[in-house]
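Here's what a typical entry looks like (Na/Pi cotransporter family protein):
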Amino acid sequence: MKHLLNLLAAVALLVWGTQLVRTGILRVFGASLRQLIAHSVRTPLAAALSGVGVTALVQSSTATALIVSAFVGQGLMGLAAALAVMLGADVGTSAMAVLFSLDLSWLSPLFIFVGVVLYVSRQDTTAGRVGRVCIGLGLMLLALRLINDSATELTRSETVRTLLGALTSDIMLEITVGAILSIVSYSSLATVLLTATLVGPGGVPAIVGLGLVVGANLGSGLLAVITTMRSSVETRQVPLGNLIFKILGVIVMAPLAAPWLLYARPHIPSDAALVVLYHLVFNVVMALVCIAFTKPVASLVERLLPREQANPTDTRPRHLDNSALATPSLAISCAAREALHLADVVETMLQGIHTVIRTADLKLSQDLRKLDDTVDGLYSDIKYYMTKISREALDEREGRRWADIMGFTINMEQVGDIIERILIDIEDKKIKRGLKFSEAGMEEINDLHARLLDNLRLAMSVFLNGTVRDAKKLLEEKTRFRELERDYAAAHLVRLQDRSVPSMETSSLHIDLISDFKRINSLLCSVAYSVLEHDNALAPKRPHAGSGAA
């Protein structure tokens, strides 16, 4: 019983070590790895090689699948290229399994010591995150040593040998067990290493180990599908295509396990090496054969999971991919894209104001007011999604981006509320009373409304690109808008003095409308302040940088 508990504890330590390495690598090199993948999809071979490199670093093909799936969901990568990346990712995982199957336990104390020193002394820095990776590597090597020792003790028992020997009769059972272990441990690498270590002392027969490895390969594909189950259609397409390749691989490679054992064993005396090399050959052969079929499989997946037609006023979040939360920097990108989706809905409402004023269309006004519920829903979804992003995993730049997204989203929600109140006023004070603005007053409203739309689009550009030049232009437009609001308010008072009947009838609405336009403009322009503050480009004296009206 003691040796069994030691084995289970060592397996848990191995899984925990792989988790530490994966999260640490993603926190340190997450942005660079995403850029590597995004810039290497020009050819299938380059995409596959990028998958090998990235997965060798993060030690998880599932993590690579989540990154690539998010890229496809955001429209940054084609499905065929993503499938090529995943073929390479499987090769990367198997290559790391070969490396860790070597006896590197002597490095474990060094990795743990260096890792703890770095992590404790500089926890919130890049060095501290590298220390986290070192701790994970040390724990993995230590766990493999403990698994080997525990397995050696366990296999001395005849009862255990008998139980293990019962597995040799059913390849489907072995594949099923391997897949379940891979899903439960959230790592096919950990499952392969565990299998190789158990085969080493002679406890688990080599043929059983090969079946477990095939199952682990299948399990990693199932795990990615399960993880992205509630994501968008585009995001789910990559794991499904990868799973199709893995199922084909199981069908082809499972019957070849016995011939591999027969012909490779004379040249590879170690059973553990037989297992990890079979895993490597399995994935290399699959990558070489299947890379030519990424486009046909992508077409098949797109038929099985067709993309939905985009709707600019869609009430559902489009880009909040929960699977991306495992990579906080990637989740930040998802939230930013969703914030722009929110701004698109606000733009639809803002454009509609002018149509309602001109046409007195009460039905359109009511439909536009309903969009405020969409704005509120998207705002809540983004806010909740942002709170699930680990702030401690973000570097300084990503932390600023997190704050910028929250500020932009809050401002868009407030703009939606103001537009709703404007529409209610137009209905009550103009449409239902059958009134019209004066010709001069309508020209002023047209001018301010056109400027407001231009500034909204400029604000979205500043939020997306962070360009200092555009940020300065946005603040200049804020100053100009404020001056125009004062001028038009004064001009309206002159018309009242001239006893203009349309101006007198719509005076309250006119003044409130241009004042609300100014408040909206101030909220839009506030996105410029964080860009200019970061670049020290703000003038010494400037308007208040809050989110309220100026």
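The two ends are 72 Å apart (CA to CA).

More examples are in the samples folder.
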